[in-house]
Amino acid sequence: MHAALSRFPRFALAHLPTPLSEMKRLRAALASEGVDVPRLFIKRDDCTGLAGGGNKTRKLEFLIGEALSQGADTIVTTGALQSNHARQAAAAAIAAGLRPVLVLLDMVPYRGHAYRRSGNLLLDDIFGADVRVVPQGTSPAGFIKTVIDEIAEAGGKAFFVPTGGSNVIGSLGYLGAYIEIADALDALGIAKARIVHGSSSGGTQAGLVAGAALRGKGPVVQGVNVYRGDHAAMKADILKLARATAEALNAPAPAESDVILEEGFLGEGYGLPTKAMVEAVELVARTEGILLDPVYTGKAMAGFLASIRAGMYPPEEALVFLHTGGMPGLFAYEEEFSSGVVA
Ligand SMILES: Cc1ncc(COP(=O)(O)O)c(C=O)c1O
């Protein structure tokens, strides 16, 4: 862990460092299409170890650390019905002896049967999380406040974790991840590299960008927008959070140009499947034996592959796809993938 992070409360949850592996078979598959492919790596943050893994574990180490230091007994967080963040927050709370309350939003107009029963929702149930779905027409912020007030009235103390764990405290986890990746690339003798990942609530990208500011040199960071139609607003929010995170560590402020966010891979909206996502998930599964997810890493990989095929990345840069997890989401979207082999 970087010394600058040691002054923040932290509750150990993640198996670190996660592996950084080369994707030689995916590279060969792309090369067989006649594409000129740089060296391809994958950073396995799907292997952070907590409840199926994923990027939220690194954020939750700091968020749960802070909750414990404030004497909280309950974690309240929020997300979509199939939130990976909520699933990991539930597990993290339990591991720390806290009670998980998940305020979930029925915000994705995907109406597959499993979406409303399986995947992350099933795991939330298995964790015994107190799941509250925001009633249609109710303001999510108002509903969350009511839940927190109710906990206080019953004598409890809630610690609220925002959507995706994306605030300065959560982003510290990805500042640490940036240092981990950059150090690993240095050890491999790789001087120029780019990290590509799916960006949503922005804490992952903000933390990585702040990490680059703190370290002063290292890989370029490139997000792929899998979340918001308002691309410019999303970029501005990521920059704001990256600057606040850098400031918390007395690191130089990231420049506007440090927030690179690719668009064009969201499809019709957050959580709505695209053909390119299905193709990307299947290609990586069938070449590398690695499972992505339908909402984040599948769409991010679709963007990554499109850019490689279009020769958009500088050929001298090694490419690192940051696998941020989300595999349980595959079960919520079974209709998109299932082959129907067994009647
Ligand atoms: C699997 C997965 N990947 C990527 C992200 C995006 O991370 P962030 O919200 O920090 O932008 C999420 C967020 O929920 C996620 O669950």
Verbal overview:
- β4, α4 and β5 form a beta-alpha-beta unit.
- 50% of the residues are buried.
- This protein is of the alpha/beta class and 343 residues long.
- The termini are far apart.
- It has two domains: 223 residues, Rossmann fold (3-Layer(aba) Sandwich); 110 residues, 3-Layer(aba) Sandwich (Rossmann fold), CATH 3.40.50.1100.
- The model has no long low-confidence stretch (mean pLDDT 96).
- The radius of gyration is 19 Å and the shape is globular.
- It has twelve helices and ten strands.
- α6 packs across α8.
- A six-stranded mixed sheet has the order 1-2-10-7-8-9, sandwiched between helices.
- Pyridoxal-5'-phosphate (PLP) binds next to α3, β7 and α7.
User: What assembly state would you assign to the polypeptide chains in this entry?
Assistant: single chain
Which cofactor or ligand species appear? pyridoxal-5'-phosphate
Order of helices and strands: EHEHEHEHEHEHEHEHEHHEHH
Q: How would the global form be characterised?
A: globular
Q: How many extended strands?
A: 10
Separation, N- and C-terminal Cα atoms? 51 Å
The residue fraction in helices comes out at 40-55%
Tell me the strand order in the biggest sheet.
Answer: 1-2-10-7-8-9
CA gyration radius, whole angstroms: 19 Å
By CATH reckoning, the class of the largest domain would read Alpha Beta
Report low-confidence residues grouped into runs of 5 or more: none
**Distinct helical segment count:** 12
Give the strand content: 15-25%
CATH topology of the largest domain: Rossmann fold
User: Total domains, how many?
Assistant: 2
Secondary-structure-based class equals alpha/beta
Largest β sheet strand count, sense and barrel closure: 6 strands, mixed
CATH architecture of the largest domain: 3-Layer(aba) Sandwich
Global mean pLDDT: 96
